Amino acid sequence: MDYPKQAGINAKRSGGSLISHGDGGFDMREALNPKRLTIVMWDHSVIIRHNPGDSWEDYDKTLDEAVERGYNTIRIDPMPGLIDLTRPERYISKSSEPYHPWMGGGNSGGPYGEWLIELMEKLLERNLNYALSAWWMPSFDPPSPQPLGLSTAVDVWLEFLCEWEKRFGFAGCVWVDLVNEYPHFPSECRQWLIDKTGGLDFSPAWNDFVVEDANAALDRMRRERPELRYMLSIHGDPRWIDVPVEMDCLDVHFYADADPRWTARTRFDELVDSRSLFTKTDWRAEFSDRCAKSHDAMKYMYRSRQRAKLAAFAELAERTGAPLTTSESWASWYYIDSPDMDWKWLLEWAEWSVEDAIDFKMWGWTPHNYCQPHFENWRDVEWHRRLTERFLNS
Question: What are 140's strand-pairing partners?
Answer without folding.
Answer: 94
